Amino acid sequence: MTDLTGRIALVTGASRGIGAACARALAAEGARVICTDLLAPTDLAEEIGGLAMAQDVTREADWAAAMDLASGEAGGLDILVNNAGLFLMKPVTETTLEDWRRLHAVNVEGVFLGCKAAIPLLTARAGRWAGGASIINLSSIAGLVGSAGAVCYNASKGAVRLMTKGLAMELAPAKVRVNSVHPGVIQTPMGDEVVAGFSAAAGIGDNEARTLLAQRHPLGHMGQVSDIANAVVYLASDKAGFMTGSEMVVDGGFTAS
Ligand SMILES: NC(=O)c1ccc[n+]([C@@H]2O[C@H](COP(=O)([O-])OP(=O)(O)OC[C@H]3O[C@@H](n4cnc5c(N)ncnc54)[C@H](O)[C@@H]3O)[C@@H](O)[C@H]2O)c1
């Protein structure tokens, strides 16, 4: 049991996939969770006794509204999970500047705006907990190693990795810990996009691509959303109280060799 009773969390991109799993897992440990996505995840919020709001992470005004909800109805903020993200699989020569900017607006600017907006609230309550407050940024194995056809995504997730470390340095005196999580391929709608992109690039069917991708993880299979949610819950908790600026790799060994 990782007790998060009394903590208030915000998870972006919480409608489905990893975000929904993180919201459920944080709530199961006692946190009150604000679930946000482009369309408000009202059913999920009702299921877990949290709050829902519509939020585009690329819009600074939406972040201000999210912080108003946190400081008002929710009562503050202790945990921020910057999870919302987009994937793109295209060779660089076919990637438009518009593609590049759209992906970076969500994957990089969204994380920057979220951290910037949340720092005052996180700092205000960090002293309540032995492990302080916690920001968890979803990077990827693609933020650690290159992948042909995913250069734009590589650049965005690499930026998240080092933004996390810089923020960890900046916020350590305030007892706000900042860590990144680096999933392997996880079975979500985005995981399906990865499979489809891989199959198109290799000229093979989706089933074969899924098998080959699974085999690239030494443990022999892709990950489940619970694998990532467990890591996020740990990083949010006092058990990770001496961890900041770290990269938690949850990839079945994909990047180990
Ligand atoms: N699934 C994987 O294999 C995998 C691997 C490594 C890293 N990740 C990262 O984990 C995170 C979650 O991935 P997932 O697989 O659950 O993705 P997903 O595509 O299944 O879900 C992403 C969610 O983000 C939301 N979103 C997109 N743009 C948004 C915006 N501008 N504002 C608010 N919400 C927005 C979507 O509506 C969606 O609900 C992402 O950051 C992704 O890059 C995923």
Please explain how this structure is put together:
This protein is α/β, with parallel strands linked by helices and 257 residues long. It folds into two domains: 8-183 and 224-249, Rossmann fold (3-Layer(aba) Sandwich); 185-222, no CATH class. 47% of the residues lie in helices and 14% in strands. α1 (17-28) packs across α8, α3 (60-74) packs parallel to α4 (97-125) and α4 (97-125) runs parallel beside α5 (151-171). Nicotinamide-adenine-dinucleotide (NAD) is lined by residues 12-13, 15-19, 37-38, 55-58, 83-86, 106, 138, 140, 183, 185-186, 188-191, 194.
How would the blueprint of this fold be written?
Elements (H helix, E strand, L loop, with lengths): L7 E4 L5 H12 L3 E6 L4 H7 L2 E4 L5 H15 L4 E4 L14 H29 L7 E6 L12 H21 L4 E8 L5 H14 L3 H10 L9 H12 L10 E4 L7
Parallel strand pairs: 1-2, 1-4, 2-3, 4-5, 5-6, 6-7
Helix pairs in contact: 1-8, 3-4, 4-5, 6-7
The protein binds nicotinamide-adenine-dinucleotide.
